[in-house]
Amino acid sequence: MSAWPRLDYTADRPTLDSVHLLLQLLGKLPTRLHPWINHGWHVALRMTPRGPMTRDLPAGERHFTAALDMLDGTIRVVCDTGAESVVPAARRTLAQVHADLSALLRSLGLPAPLHGKPNELPDPVAFADDRRPRAWDPDAAQRLLGAFLCADRQFNVFRSLYRGKSSPSHLFWGSLDLAVTRFSGRTAPEHPGGVPHLPDAVTREAYSHEVISAGFWPGNDAYPHAAFYAYAYPVPPGLAEASVLPAGAFWQADMGEFLLPYQAVRAAPDPGAALQAFLQSTYQAAAERLHWPRGLTLAAASIGRPPA
């Protein structure tokens, strides 16, 4: 039996929407408290066995983290005093969670810059005003967490095979996707922007340099299925016609990227190998057409010692 859990975007969407909005709320903390790191990496969350977590957040002379615990449906705040506090999040309105998390942070003497609205979503409602009922299916939340963790493991392997500049494997809460990005070191043409509810200046800084990026997301309106993706910026001529692996991968013209359905990976005899084939072949196709420097990739991951 595959360790990669079953996902069903249509059936799981109410819980996915709840997870997405809760991560949007948490994402305001690093956005407003952490110094800007190139390409907006400071706002991204890292995966843990219980769910996505912020990086260490500065609060004057204090330090804390905040995480969505997808196993018990709570938000956990841990600070350098040793205090660990929990805010219930499952089946509560966003306004309720916003109010309780803000009050908790203030009671701990920590900043609570949680004002505003979600990003990259149509018709966003301010967190403090969003009183719509929110679903939480524990099974759906746990399966989504398992899928993110499986993807994160393989993305970390893929990252380890590149000697150039690479992002960590990290989760962007705006679009709810886990991503890993490689860089050539060369600047890129100015990005046109136009991402809904995201300032163009943020998009242009994120794509200030050439990238070949891959990621995983559990589905969206444009493609209502969990999938892995890969793209390049700028998009080189001929990329859409490139032959990539495994057999289930294809070029999605409207989205301008390669897709590999999550189910194709899950059903493969070796899901990790199938995903690595997709990551490696799409990178190779884009790198060749962008004329990236050679000699930046390794043949195999190394554990416990530097690569040969």
Order of helices and strands: HEEEEEEHHEEHEEEEHH
| Distance, first to last CA | 35 Å
Percent in strands: 15-25%
Tell me how many strands there are.
12
Features of the shown structure:
single chain; 308 residues; six-stranded antiparallel sheet
Description:
This protein has 308 residues and is α+β, with helices and mostly antiparallel strands. It has 2 domains: 9-129; 138-290. The protein has helices at 9-33, 94-107, 138-160, 200-206, 262-267, 271-290; strands at 46-48, 51-53, 57-59, 62-69, 74-79, 84-88, 170-172, 177-187, 209-217, 227-233, 250-252, 257-261. The longest helix is centred in the first third of the chain and has 25 residues, at 9-33.
Summarize the structure.
The protein is an alpha+beta fold and 308 residues long. The chain has six helices and twelve strands. 31% of the residues lie in helices and 21% in strands.
